Amino acid sequence: MSFDLRQLRYFVAVAEECHFGRAALRLSMTQPPLSQQIRALEEALGAPLFLRTKRSVELTPVGRDLLPEVRRLLAAADGLQPMAQSLARGEVGVLSLAFVSTADYGVLPPLLQRFSERYPGVRLQLTEATSDVQFEELWAGRVDAGLIIPPLPARFANHLEYLPIAREPLVVAMSEAQARLVGGRENDAVTLHEIAAAPLIVFPRRLAPAFYDIIMDCFGAAGITPYIGQEAIQMQTIVSLVSAGMGVALVPQSLRNLRRTGVVYRPLQAALPVVETGLVWRRADAGPVLQGFIAAARAYAQERAAAID
Fold first, then answer.
1. Domain check: are 239 and 302 in the same one?
2. Cα separation of 307 and 137, whole Å?
3. Same domain, 196 and 155
4. Do 157 and 280 fall into the same domain?
5. What pLDDT does 87 receive?
6. Deepest in the core among 146, 148, 171, 259, taking most CB within 10 A?
7. What are the tens digits of pLDDT across the range 173-223?
8. Which ranges constitute the DSSP H helices of 54-150?
9. Are residues 159 and 301 in the same domain?
10. 131 and 160 share a domain?
11. For residue 228, what are the β-bridge partners?
């Protein structure tokens, strides 16, 4: 035999009033059906809940021990509707977000701040990964969205949506010693010919083909074949190698926020190569939480574009 939440509410009312008549009045019902429902609950549970006399109603030891558990159960049940509504609005839940290391110094912090202020009940799971790894993680359903450097591989293009967020120029990261060789002041632009003799530090092409090609195309347009001195898979490592005097690197302008001792950032002269960062997610799998994040990313992208214009 089963019981329902209504019977549990009746039990709590009688337990608190210690009187069937007052409990019935509180519940806006008559006493006989209330007594019948309590007996049905006792039969379903297989234990008496009340000691009844003509003058009093008292909880049995089972009833006393059961009362706090029933209250917790009813409170949880009462919370289901607002919880469901919050889930439907994307106000609570979990969002798994991957990001390229370049985003950590540019779009990621303000985007997360915007989203967290709007949806404080959403728990974020953040993972740093190169774009190629993110595509595989998205395909496998292990992350909900990713901040990548485009383009999308052809085999994923029909399954993923992409939202461009930011475009920023590349700047030269060089050691203080290299900066003295080039000459000029801190914010003076340099040409690729002025740094052509220095080893170049880059992401491996197999892990970041788009970013690698942007840099190589930049040198190619200047008629220079760079010497690849080191490869590293994290932007922090690239900047650390620059600081150690191992070479120079072309990095997104936002990397200026990574203030590393011994590293100087200088703008490039003439046509500036740019790198784009965007949000990617599975086309057929955008739940309420992810939709909220996409909206925050779209609003942030529009603000950036308006500020540039």
1. no
2. 33
3. no
4. yes
5. 65
6. 148
7. 999 999 888 887 778 899 999 999 999 999 888 888 888 998 999 899 889
8. 61-78, 80-88, 108-118, 131-140
9. yes
10. yes
11. 200
Same domain, 239 and 193: yes
Spell out a b/e string for 26-63, using b for 16 or more CB atoms within 10 Å of the CB, else e.
ebeeeeeebbebbebbbeebeebbbeeeeeebebeeeb
Give the separation between CA 109 and CA 123, rounded to whole angstroms. 15
Pair of tokens at residue 51: 């000691």
What is the band of 77 on the pLDDT scale with cuts at 50, 70, 90?
A: confident
Share of the chain above pLDDT 90, in %: 45
E strands present in the chain: 50-52, 57-59, 92-99, 121-128, 145-148, 160-175, 200-202, 228-231, 249-252, 263-267, 274-282
SS3 257: helix
Question: Of 78, 113, 143, which marks where a domain is finished?
Answer: 78
112 & 151 share domain: yes
The 3-state DSSP class for residue 135 equals helix
Query: What's the residue count for the chain?
Result: 309
Query: Could you identify the residue written with the tokens 């690849």?
Result: 228
Q: What is the C-alpha to C-alpha distance for residues 170 and 249, in angstroms, rounded to an integer?
A: 9
Count of beta carbons in the 10 Å neighbourhood of residue 96 = 19
Residue 256 to residue 92: CA distance in whole angstroms? 35
Number of domains making up the chain: 3
CATH of the domain at 177: 3.40.190.10
Is residue 161 domain-shared with residue 294, that is, in the same domain? yes
Least confident of 24-33, 34-43, 70-79: 70-79
